[in-house]
Write a structure and sequence with these properties.
The structure is a single chain. This protein is mainly beta. The protein has two domains: 101 residues, Sandwich (Immunoglobulin-like); 108 residues, Macroglobulin (MG2) domain (Immunoglobulin-like, Sandwich). Helices cover 12% and strands 40% of the residues. The strands form four sheets. The protein has a five-stranded antiparallel beta sheet, with no helix packed on it. The longest helix has 23 residues. The protein is globular and about 50 Å long. The chain binds copper (II) ion.
Length: 291
């Protein structure tokens, strides 16, 4: 009970401080106003959802980080190795240098193309001064969306994204249509996906059952991938919503792997399940409709 009272008291004090700082238009406020302009990518990398904007001076840097994605050589060409740089800055305009290890990594980078037919999940290395870099190859020209998923130390999970342009001939655009049958065969394995529900704003359990495609026997010796039974990424068809997904039993080894998520609104979503078996990572995509 005491704790709650203290939190309430501190919140009130902070709110009063914040309101007065924003209202007066003094030097401090002018500094904050300038902040948006200094970060050209502010609007583009807004998937964080929690842009507070004002009065963070007394708080840790990690309140509402910014990420900017650049190609180190100035541009990227299809089918050529390209170095991507991701610069992470705090609210105060200073680089963030302390990150929590999440799923065994400091930062997860997901790259998809416009129709979500291309999916890449890689792990850039931290170079200091808030910067991560990684080499990658884009299969064709066109627009790709990059998502950087990380947790600043002492902060909350952030997913910052930006569309990036790759030079070269574009591939064919395919429609993103919901699968009529949620059973897929990839690399000699059969993956069956079941959803506990398909309603938005309700926690949904995703159950993957993994079998040998030939014998139909369940695979019971899945290896941990990024510290858990598997890793699942979900994006809305327009790549606007990146969903957070967590395993229900990290230590599971198959044939069943369960994850939980909440679809924010109705629409079409693409789900990528990633599992490791015999030292190889297998990525299996599904498209579902949430009504
Ligand atoms: Cu990752």
């Amino acid at each position: 009970m005491m704790n709650k009272k203290w939190i309430l008291l501190i919140s009130i004090i902070l709110t009063i401080g914040l309101l007065s700082a924003c209202g007066k238009g003094n030097d401090q406020t002018a500094g904050h106003e300038g902040h948006g302009g200094q970060n050209a990518n502010d609007a583009k990398s807004g998937d964080n959802g929690g842009h507070g904007g004002h009065g963070e001076d007394e708080q840790p840097v990690s309140g509402s980080p910014e990420a900017s994605f650049t190609f180190v050589s100035g541009g990227a060409k299809a089918k050529e190795e390209t170095e991507i740089s991701i610069q992470i800055m705090g609210d105060d305009g200073k680089p963030i240098n302390d990150f929590e290890v999440s799923h065994e990594k400091l930062l997860h980078l997901i790259i998809v193309n416009h129709d979500l037919s291309f999916f890449n999940h890689i792990h850039p290395e931290f170079q200091g001064d808030g910067k991560f870099t990684v080499d990658t190859v884009f299969p064709a020209g066109g627009e790709y969306k990059a998502f950087a998923d990380f947790i600043p130390s002492g902060g909350t999970n952030a997913t910052l994204s930006e569309w990036i342009e790759v030079e070269g001939e574009e591939g064919e655009h395919a429609d993103i249509t919901p699968d009529s049958n949620l059973v897929k065969e990839v690399d000699g394995k059969e993956f069956e996906l079941a959803l506990s529900g398909t309603k938005p704003k309700e926690e949904t359990t995703l159950t993957f059952t993994i079998r040998d495609a030939g014998t139909k026997e369940g695979i019971e010796d899945l290896e941990p991938y990024l510290g858990a039974v598997g890793h699942v990424v979900i994006l809305s068809a327009d790549a606007e919503n990146y969903l957070h997904v967590h395993p229900l039993d990290e230590k599971a080894t198959g044939p069943v792997a369960e994850f939980a998520t909440t679809f924010p609104q109705s629409g079409t979503y693409k789900i990528w399940g990633q599992f490791q078996h015999n030292g190889e990572v297998i990525t299996v995509p599904f498209v579902v409709e949430v009504k």
